[in-house]
Amino acid sequence: MCIRDRICLDDVSVNNEFSQDYKSCNVNISFKIRDLGSSELLKRGLTKKKTNYNFINCDYKIEIFDPESKSIIGSLIAKAKLIPRKVKEISNTISIKNITLWSPLNPKLYELRIKLFYNNVQIDEIRKNLGFKEFRVSNGSFYLNGNKIFIRGVIRYDQHPDFGNSVPWNVLEKDIMKIKSLGVNAVKVAHFPPHPYFVELCDIYGLLLFEEIPIWRINSHYFNKKKHLETTTIFLSEVVNRDKLHPSIAGWGLGSNFESSAKEAAFFLTKLVNTIKNIDSKLTYFSTFTPESDKCLSIVDFNLISFKPYPLSRFKTCINKIISIIKNKPVIIDKIGIEVFPDTETVEGGVSSLTYQAKYLQERISYLENNRYVDGYFIWSFADWKGSVPLLASEPFKDLYTYNRGLVDLKRNERPAYQYLKAFISGQKLSPLITETTQSENPPFFILSGFFYIVIIIILSKKIKWFGENLRRSLFYTKGFNLDLKNKRLPLWHTFLIGILIGGITGEIFAIIGFYFKRNIIFDYLVTHFSVYNSFKELVTFLIWHPFLFTVFNMLIIFISFLILSIIVYIFFAVFGLKIEYLIIMQIIMWSGSIFIFFIPLDMILFQVLHYSVVIYLYILFSFISTILQQCIV
């Protein structure tokens, strides 16, 4: 709750106009005086006459104070005529010479003081930190106070394992100090405005702050909703008004990885940019995954380009492509990082050891630093964070919601990547990083199960009369075999056996694919997309990491699917007047899947073959064509 005087100061804005050499500045200061009921002043004894005033005369004083020299370097005194219960807008300019500019190397702060007087009695005062800084885009590059600057930043999530999202002030300051000691000059807050004290710390320690509003992965249909636009505009206005005076603010972020290729997004973003420009003159940006089809690039002052964890060669190719697309604007690469799993040395599918994380970042950052067409980057991220959905790759650590991408972990313990990056940025000599790439583990279950299926089929064919013959005829003499099914010449339990076998063989393929891609980020996104509830993804994650259980689970699901499909076909035939018994339909459907017997060798080698994608694609294509031909014959 905020308690205000009946007459109070509000909504301070500052706009600096620098001389060509940046040694002097015209400080344009505007603010509002709100008269919320000036007659109440009579009760406070500030005036002796009980008269209904048509206006009230107040005095105000503006000072710019230097805390280091403890002197006032600029001031102004003036009068304001207030109309009761109205808002008075005030604008003044103070010229200052021999200023010290704010920058990450020298975060010089002054103090802006605005005082309001009535009858020589001070009735209100506002004090704000003030820094003289100009951050602009010119000729496709960033310029800070007239000098070209390369952005080196980290992404930070406002979380801590002991305090959640309510991080204490002393912990915020420790984070800022650790970020600053890394040698970077910028920090980007992930998808939400930070605590006001965090912004103030960026002013004090000298970090350019890229502040964002929570528009993240939003589909285009939201942009057509008037209520969504109104809510976002109000939220954005409040954020900009709250932090616009802070010299650390480098730009206002309008979202990350939303559907910016849609026309609706362009309209929506234009409204947001106009909202900001009516309040503040700082730069605007958003982050995109798809610059080649983006319809919003020209709306903002600059863009951040996000990448998946590509191999280095493809990463370089993508950078060159981005440079050819984005012209006359700075190129900043966003979200450079890779998942960390301390107990493994594999580097497949976006997974890395602690050492490989350092190497991964060093290779890409070294390339960006030496590319004259790139203007900056953001490392993803400063510290690990808790996500809102389970993470497949975190199953062995029994903490599915921790995203291990940080230069430091949740407890702020430094990883090798932090130390290595700190040395790299400071120009220290680096020792070579040696990482060992190993193939993913291949559970013996995959091979043994193939032998198990073969042995079971041989035993069933030898011990059970007609089972082997029925299996052979279902594969090579389909038409005659289906006539036998129609005439009820096959035991029902033979059908159940083949259904269970087919369910196990095909279910194991899903288990193998899941286990192979269990640490792949894109696969994780797909699983998340089809998981309505987190509890469902938790179940899927557990099953993927336990292939035997996953195979059994898939076998049951496939067998039940046969039964359900049979019911659907039976109802379909009944609607059109075709009287075919349910058991006959079920037997035909289950035995028609006998072609999947040929997938047994695939079960045994699939995990290894996945390393050679062309071979597996050809095999799957052959099997698919064979299945289609068989169904056509049926």
Task: Give structural notes.
The chain has 634 residues and is α/β, with parallel strands linked by helices. It is 40% helix and 22% strand. The chain is built from 17 helices and 22 strands. The chain has helices at 169-182, 196-205, 226-243, 263-277, 312-325, 354-369, 416-425, 444-463, 467-476, 478-486, 492-516, 521-529, 534-544, 547-575, 582-592, 600-609, 613-633, and strands at 7-18, 24-35, 56-66, 71-82, 87-97, 110-118, 121-130, 135-138, 141-144, 147-148, 151-156, 186-189, 208-212, 249-256, 283-288, 302-306, 331-336, 339-340, 351-352, 376-379, 385-386, 402-403. The strands form six sheets. Strands 11-12-13-14-15-16-17-20 form an eight-stranded parallel β-barrel, surrounded by four helices. Strands 4-3-6-7 form a four-stranded antiparallel β-sheet, with no helix packed on it. Helix 11 packs across helix 14 (547-575), helix 11 (492-516) crosses helix 15 (582-592) and helix 14 (547-575) crosses helix 15. The longest helix is centred in the C-terminal third of the chain and has 29 residues, at 547-575. The chain is elongated and about 110 Å long. It starts with 6 loop residues before the first strand and ends with a helix.
